[in-house]
Amino acid sequence: MNFNRVFRSYSYHRLWSSLNYIRTVYTAKSETSPLQIYRNKVAVYEFRADPRQEQLMIMLDKLYYDLQTYIPESRHIETTTYPDETKTNFLTKLTNVFKLSSSTNDFIERPKSLYIYGSAGCGKSLLMDIFFECMPIKEKRRVHFNSFMLEFHNRMHRIRNNNATANDNLLGSVVEELLDEIWLLCFDEFMVLDIGDAMIIKRLFEHLFAKGMIMIATSNRPPDDLYYRGLNREYFVPFIPFLHRMCTVYNMDSSTDYRLIGTQGHVQTVFDANRPETTSELDSLCTRLIAPFEPKTATLDVNGRNIKIPWQARGVVKFSFDELCGQEYFSADYIAIASKYHTLILTDIPHLSIEKRDRIRRFIILIDELYNYNTKLIISMFVSTVKDIFNPLKDDPKLKREDLLTMDEFHSFDRTISRLIEMQSKEYLSKPKRFINTEKFVDEWLQLQ
Prior knowledge:
Elements: H1 3-27, H2 34-43, H3 51-66, H4 90-97, E1 113-117, H5 124-134, E2 140-144, H6 145-162, H7 170-181, E3 184-188, H8 195-210, E4 214-219, H9 239-246, E5 247-251, E6 270-272, H10 278-290, E7 296-302, E8 305-313, E9 316-320, H11 321-325, H12 331-340, E10 343-349, H13 357-372, E11 376-381, H14 392-395, H15 408-422, H16 426-429
Parallel strand pairs: 1-4, 1-5, 2-3, 3-4, 6-11, 9-10, 10-11
Antiparallel strand pairs: 7-8, 8-9
Helix pairs in contact: 2-3, 3-5, 6-7, 7-8, 12-13, 13-15
């Protein structure tokens, strides 16, 4: 091994990194940094002062400056697939320590990714979005975690079909393709729901981090609680210390749900399904939304599968709860609906018991995607408030929160309730619709205000 070469490479990159850092400090515009933008919004009362949010913005601000000169490069990262330690002698370990990497950047400390967790509505996603908008690079993406995993599966399917030889390193091929386009990933709602996702996420992120990806992720759960008591969780557990090693973990630790502040000026988007008049009231509202058109059926092509739309016109779509959440629909289906239509009318939402986990999970995913695309939501339900749609602690007084630690749906439903309440507010209804398809319907909702 040429130790002089290692020393020269190390010294050169330390010097180059220092010069880049000095250049960044003196050339980056502090007035457009995440922390300054946050403080400006607090100063004009757009945001409320919150010490936990301020501390997070300080961390994001440091990362913002660190990434100004960051160049992603592949490097060796110890993964969670460990060799048999009984067969690894001292000489082997020593050799591995001084093993010359293909990238001299291995000797430079890489900026740590950031994993942010906290209760619903505490501002995680909002502050991450400020950071994302500030980053002056093209190779970035802000995406809901469900959407990212769907894209990942689609890429694997396409690469497998187009290149048979890629099967030998299919995951590596997908990662290479992804990182040709982006190296900064901002994930909203990082979650692990089943063993299939758990195994894919573990291997996928080991590859992504090894190739130089930087991640900002928000979640309702700390890393140690991901996939808590899930099936065969012992195969996922080694990923948790790896995630801790690659990320700074920050607890927002806030009891304030900011989505509920300023939402008192509701317009009627929630109807009582028990009232006989509700059907005619919803019909009247639908007529106003789609006039002068008549509703028709339609079909959406989702990755080669046909999704039947029973009622739609002029960007408005209507389903009953059983039609949309009682059937075998997946994240991709809800993304297709949320991204195409500006308004969803969802009727006859029932009370959901703890035994209806499949329906609860689909409803959570549906609301997440509607919220992600600023899709307006009009509902009728058989319960008094959205908090009663799924409330196992109220249904069974003998239950305690710790009894439901294994149920991801229970923890995620706090976010669903928060979003359902916010989606009734004038602030949410005034947001422009986000479309991803080429056919864009005019959002007629504002005409009803």
